[in-house]
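B., you asked whether I could sanity-check this one before it goes into the benchmark set. Here's the sequence:
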Amino acid sequence: MALMLPLLAFIFATLLVAAIGIRFAGNRGNAMDRRLADVIGRAEQADESPRFVALKEAVRKFGSKVPVSPKDVGKVRLRLIQAGYRGGEALPLFYGIRMSIAIGAFVLMATPLLVRPNLMFGLGGSLLGYLMPGIVLAKLAKKRQHKIQLGLADALDLMVVSVEAGLGLDQAILRVGDELSFAHPDLSNELRLVNIELRAGKARTEALRNLADRTGLEDIGSLATMLIQTDKFGTSVAQSLRVHCETLRTKRRQRAEEAAAKTGVKMVFPLVFCIFPAVWIVTIGPAAIKFVQVIVPIAQDIKKH
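And here's what the prediction gave me:
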């Protein structure tokens, strides 16, 4: 019996360690699967309920039936790409959401569901519902452009180091895209798309121009133009990138100075309408109350006499 106790303790400890190891190995595998899913860009369908999937499909089908002009389709598609929505179903989904909100707003305003029915309110609500998705999409695109703008200087620095270390321009773009995947994922995705287009057989000039069109940023457009001219005339890529990086940092400093100069004008509204009334009440209020307490009895005595 005395010999069995150490054996049972050893077996129990071995099973405990094995269970803990299996537990951590399972978590590690799940984490790796999630990272791989994020890298290849697959959406996790488990988080979407069947009702949401059915509603999404209905809105997409409704949007595909909406008559639109080719010119408007091009503008909306470019705006969706700039906002980060590149899927084939993004365009019909946008049109479906736009028309659904417009029709819903008209029904709510022109029928006695919420307010007193009014045809003019219905038309106004329908117009607002039609314009609102475009406004939201423009805000999302602008926000994404700002994120890409913030990471552009770091990308150029890494590109200069990579080119000076001996890598070609295509390999440098791929390397920079991999290095920025955590800090600046939007810019990293754009650079990876450039590399995918180059591997697919597109010319470097076309791939760089597509990068400028997808982002819609002036700085990236100038960068693409500089790289195209460098490739065409055979000048040093590293030297051109270093000069362009210095120019970009100067422009960033000028933007910061411009934003700082606008701060005083932007502060006028909150100062006049929010802070100044409170300060006026705190400073003048007690004196005004005391003045009324003194003057009102005197005025009443004058009236009596």
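One thing to flag: The longest helix spans residues 119-164. Otherwise nothing jumped out at me.
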